Structures are given as C-alpha cells and as structure tokens.
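Narrative progress, year one. The postdoctoral researcher (J.K.) led the effort to move from monomer predictions toward full complexes, under supervision of the PI. The following entry was the first complex the group processed end to end, covering 392 residues in total.
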Amino acid sequence: MSSRPGRRPGTSGTRQAILDAARASFNQNGYDRATIRDVAKRASVDPALVHHFFGSKQNLFAASMDLPFEPTPIIERVIQGDIDSLGDRMAQTFFAVWDAHAEGNPIVGLIRSATSNEKAGSMLREFITTEIVGRITKGLRLSSPQLRAGLIASQMIGAAFIRYVIRLEPIASMSAADLGRLIAPTLQRYLTADVK
Amino acid sequence: MSSRPGRRPGTSGTRQAILDAARASFNQNGYDRATIRDVAKRASVDPALVHHFFGSKQNLFAASMDLPFEPTPIIERVIQGDIDSLGDRMAQTFFAVWDAHAEGNPIVGLIRSATSNEKAGSMLREFITTEIVGRITKGLRLSSPQLRAGLIASQMIGAAFIRYVIRLEPIASMSAADLGRLIAPTLQRYLTADVK
C-alpha cells in the first residue's frame, strides 16, 4: 500500500486524513461543538470535500467511530410512516443493520470506548441527544423527547450488548426479525406511552 | 502495609489470596466449571474458609469482579412475592443497589471487561445463565426462561449503561424510584407476556 511513500495522497489518503482530523476535532470539541469547517481546516482541505465524502456531520462522526454504515439515511427512512408502528420499524431496522455488519463487531468497539474513555462517553451522549433525539422527535411533537430517547437507547444498546457482545443464547442466534418482534413493544411504549 | 514482609497473612491477606485464586480459576475454567474446591486449593486454604468468607460461588464471583455487594441475598429477596409485581421489584432494587454503590462505578468496569475480553464476556454470560436464570425461574415455572432472562438482562444492562456509563440526562439524574417505574413494565412483560 505504501509502495510510493513520496506520492501525494489520492482519494483514500484524503478520506483518511479527513477521518483523522474528525477524530481529533470530536475529541477536542465534543460532538456538538465540532464543525465540518474545523475538520476541513485540520485536514487542509475544502469543507466542500468533507461534505462530498461524508455528507453530514453525523455520518462523519459515525465513520470516525468506525461504524460501517451511514446512520442518516437509515434514520430518515425509519421515521417515515405511521407512529403506531415506529417501534417495530426501529427494532427491525436496528438488528438488521447491525447483523449485516456484525463481522467487525463495531458495536463492541463503540461500547468499549464509551466505557473506557470519558470523552468517548460524552461524545456518544451528545450524538444521541442531538441527532437521534432531534430526528425522532422532529415533527412527532412527543412530550419529554430526551427521556424517551434515553429509554429507547437503553433497550437498543442493552439488546446489542446481549446479542453481539456477550452473545447470550437464544438471543445471540435468533433471527433479527424475531428479536425485533420481542423488543418492538418496548420501544413503542417508550415512544408513545405516558412517561412520568 | 507491607512493613512486615515476612509476616503470615492475616484475615485480609487470606481474603485477598482467595480472591486472586478465584479470578484465576474463573478465568481458566469459566463460571460454570469453576469450583469452590479448586479455588481453595489454589489459595492453599480449606474450602470451608472460602465458604466462610464468601458464602457461595455467586458471591465469590461477584467479589472477584469487584462488585461491592453480594447478589445472592438481594436476588433471594426480590423473587419473594407476587409475580405480577416482580418486574417492579426487580427494577426498583436494581437501580437502588447500583445507586448505593455508584462511587466506584463497578458496572462500568463490568461492561468494560465484557467488551474488551472474550473470557470476561463468556463468564458474565455463564453467570447470568446459571445464577440469574436459574433463580428467577425456580418455582415460577415460566416458559422460555433463557429467553426471558436475556431480555430482562438486556433492559437492565442497557439502562445501567445510559445512567451510569454515558450519563445521558434526564435518566442519569432522576431518582432510582422514578427510573424503576419507567422500566418496570418492560421487565414485567419480559417475565410474563407471551414470548415466541
């Protein structure tokens, strides 16, 4: 790969430089205060190039956390449709997406960084608050959006921990659809039931 | 502390030697195959002394994982009583116990070891399967006890992650009783509702 050390970085070199800059920027500024502009400056590229590669700050964050998929289009798709079946769509999509990328076990890395590193934990917190809460509640006009998002995240992250990290049976081996069906009513309750 | 290096270990030295032996035994044999007898042999003490200090294999395991409380009496107390309010007792007790020991944040260490170390993950899996599943389902005659225990563990561990690890508000700061009330119906559904 590094057979031509003096060569100017090509597309993948630029992408990598942006990712390195993003990690540094998120680490120093946290998720909310990091900007595409600052990342571009650190990588010595035009902000338009960062947009070209990653599309949005949340996708850039996901890539910098080594998530192998882009959350933005997935979240946008899930929140379309009837709110009474939103819990079901969230549960089904969550396990289907993680299953499709289970080889590298990125969620293990995500949970590990959040537990071993205060800054990674606070970045994850800001990401959930800003992007997930913001998107799920935009247009739905739910009461207590922060609380609902936290409850939803608690069930999703916990189920991922049981299925992908400690691999407790039968949850580890059942189909994403079957597990989704079991978890969906919990998410639906956290979305629409009376909370506190 | 080590001012008299040649001195025979006292009570706390013996306790520590047993804990070290327990860690080695659990690590080598896993939770299920580790025995009090093997731990005693490794620590060069009588098995009765291990029982004297820790009472049971599950308490010994909890101590070797640096849990600051003994799970056995807590679990025994929670499962007493009406099954229709078991979800509520589980949720209330879980957060009350962790809150009381939140300073050292032992659950952060537990989640961290399980994510960074394959063996710790499989020990936690065996502990949940053998002790929690066995105890909760003993006498209750629930169908699919393994599945129910996994679902319950997923919600409990996930809620602990949100409250104690990434400290997402408002879940991080609300009272254990309020959070317990929100989580209880989920645990109750996993205990008694129709699952597959």
